């Protein structure tokens, strides 16, 4: 049965959530530096969360712990549709768009929701990669929304890493897991294309550093 089959698309999201909830319930979990998100929310600010594609599953699972509802950008593809349906089951609102198919309009729409008080979310390396290479849409959305970017990464002491383009991580039952928030990253609203390119480079390095820290996370 192919992924495009409507029955499979209907069944996989609820099954994925059941599986994720069951596995993560067995794990020893912690959240590191969520005060970065909470402090900004207390100041009346929305934030733009971003993580690498390979660490989406646990990040989705922790959406309900955020201080505000979240609006996401997803790819208008079969995989993107599946990801969207899983994210929605954790309370996210999802808009579809890509570089070649409505992406700019979707980014403006998400920015509008963020200016009204919601958090935003965007996959750092997009739906097709390259792996761990930040897409320019992240800094563009930060500029348009006026919200600081909060990089997020996941640490787990027991996991499988799939041989896929994104090196997707499957956390195993009874693992120790940490969701780690980075420090806020601000993109000025008057940034031109040259400045955005530099902000993209700096933010990519920060997210890579946070990811590498989580690969060697000092669990107690």
Short description:
The protein is an alpha/beta fold. The protein has helices at residues 6-25, 35-42, 56-61, 78-89, 103-115, 136-145, 193-215, and strands at 28-32, 48-51, 70-74, 93-96, 119-123, 149-156, 159-161, 169-171, 176-181.
List keywords for this structure.
220 residues, alpha/beta, Glycerol-3-phosphate (1)-acyltransferase, two-stranded antiparallel ribbon, 9 strands
How would you classify the helix and strand content by structural class? alpha/beta
Estimated share of beta-strand residues:
15-25%
Q: What percentage of residues falls in helices of 4 or more residues?
A: 40-55%
CATH topology: Glycerol-3-phosphate (1)-acyltransferase
Distance between the termini: 44 Å
How is the largest sheet built, in terms of strand order? 1-9-6-2-5-3-4
Question: How many strand segments?
Answer: 9
Question: At the fourth CATH level, what is the homologous superfamily?
Answer: Glycerol-3-phosphate (1)-acyltransferase
Q: Enumerate the spans where pLDDT stays under 50 for 5 or more consecutive residues.
A: none
Query: What form results from the Cα inertia axes?
Result: globular
CATH architecture: 3-Layer(aba) Sandwich
- Helix and strand pattern: HEHEHEHEHEHEEEEH
Q: What can be said about the biggest beta sheet?
A: 7 strands, mixed
User: What count of structural domains?
Assistant: 1
Mean of residue pLDDT values: 93
Task: Please work out how many helical segments DSSP would assign.
Answer: 7
CATH class: Alpha Beta
User: How many whole angstroms does the radius of gyration measure?
Assistant: 17 Å
